[in-house]
Amino acid sequence: MHTEQSDNSELLLAEWQELVNLTSSDAHELLRDLCEEELSQLVSVFYDYMLQDKKASLYLNTQQVADQLSESMYHWLRSVLGSAKESLSALMERQQKVGVIHSRIGIPTDLVARGARKLKNELFRLLSRKKNLDAALINQAVCFSSLVMDTAIEAMTTAYSPGYKSAMRDQERYRILSIYDDVNVERERQLGALMNWENQFIYNVATGLPSEEIILLEKSEFGLWFFHKGRHLFNGPDLLRKLEALIQQVDNRVRDTFPRHVEDTAIRTQLLRDVRQLIGQVNSILCSMFDELIKFENGKDPLTNLLNRRFIPTIMRREIALAISSGKPFILAMIDIDHFKQINDNYGHETGNLTLKTISTKIYESVRSSDYVFRYGGEEFMVLLVETQAPQAAMIFDSIRQLVAGLNIRATEERAFSVTISAGIAEFDNHPDYQQLIEKADSALYQAKANGRNRIEIFH
């Protein structure tokens, strides 16, 4: 995958260079000489247009446009239209970074395409008004500007597509897994359903039940579950295809025997052997797929049983969209166990793990069921409080801080110790990129550490 993406980037870079070389120096000069007022007008028209779009307004607001995005778009236009004088490899890298951000935010590609179309249209109008210039020169500048914008956006997409596909897979897994309270329970239920079908089939064949009353595996409780739910639950298309083929083999073997050869004992015996052997393969693949699901896809940190960071993008994007559409705030907090390394060094990793589990339980039990608690990594936790403002959040986390400080964690029968936490809080500020909010909460956490630990700081 990485090699394929690199190959695409190299090809795109070569084509960008060819486009630059094919365009006359006069056309390049014309685009580079567009004045600040002209480019600023393009940016202004672009954002006025996009802010009118309901879908786009989920990712934009007028304050953001005024504070950050207008300047970013101005520099993007200046660098892309003037790419003949730029380092194309560096310019390509910048486009891919933008693509990663678009992927993280979840900006639909049709919005990017619509915005590009508006920019190209307005640039065409701007250049067409320059009546004192040769028409062929204007035409060449228009062609180059249109193609170079397409090239830049394609460069963004090379980074966007893999991240977007991964995000969509994680989003779907999170949605499906949230349906199942316990994957282990589902595993036993479906293995049981498969065994029930096999036992019932053996009994029906042995007792000479009429063929029309024998239920095919595809139509059984297990078969219906697999085709309607199981295929969407598991990852690994090769194993899914193999499992589907095995189910079809079982049913084809049954169809080939009934009703013509049902009276032949030898054929019936061979049928039972074949079906048992095929069902054994189905069982084996199903077990391995559930094992992988439990191991990698259950979304829970095995030590603390909190959500792991894999689903942070899915949940953050969803909460940001809700906050923007409803106008309701939310809080992100980063929490760190103070001097955790010393706990591991002094008491051992087993006691360190006990400390993590104890504190994670306190945090989880101190927030609402609507909130989210993640094991962020190491001794760090991330908490998302929905519909909460900073002053209220500060009281909640200070209460958690006091609860933790009051714990008496026992390393051995004779040895016990206390522990403290520090936390940084950031309130959602309508920026659609969740990574910026994480960085603000992390900055506040750093401040809490710098100010002596065992305290809460709010990002300002």
From TrEMBL:
Pathway terms, separated by semicolons: Purine metabolism; 3',5'-cyclic di-GMP biosynthesis
According to its UniProt record, the EC number is 2.7.7.65
> What are this entry's molecular-function GO terms?
diguanylate cyclase activity; heme binding; metal ion binding; nucleotide binding; oxygen binding
Gene Ontology cellular-component terms for this entry are: plasma membrane
GGDEF domain residues are: 328-460
Q: Keywords on this record?
A: Heme, Iron, Magnesium, Metal-binding, Nucleotide-binding, Nucleotidyltransferase, Transferase
Q: Which reaction does it catalyse?
A: 2 GTP = 3',3'-c-di-GMP + 2 diphosphate
Family matches, as InterPro entries: Diguanylate_Cyclase, DosC_2nd, DosC_GS, GGDEF_dom, Globin-like_sf, Globin-sensor_dom, Globin/Proto, Nucleotide_cyclase
- Which terms under GO biological process does the entry name? cell adhesion involved in single-species biofilm formation; negative regulation of bacterial-type flagellum-dependent cell motility
Top-level EC class: transferase
**Entries under Pfam families matching the protein:** DosC_2nd, GGDEF, Protoglobin
Names of the cofactor(s): Mg(2+); heme
SUPFAM superfamilies, alphabetically? Globin-like, Nucleotide cyclase
Q: Which NCBIfam families match?
A: GGDEF (TIGR00254)
Q: What is this protein called?
A: Diguanylate cyclase DosC
Name the source organism. Dickeya solani
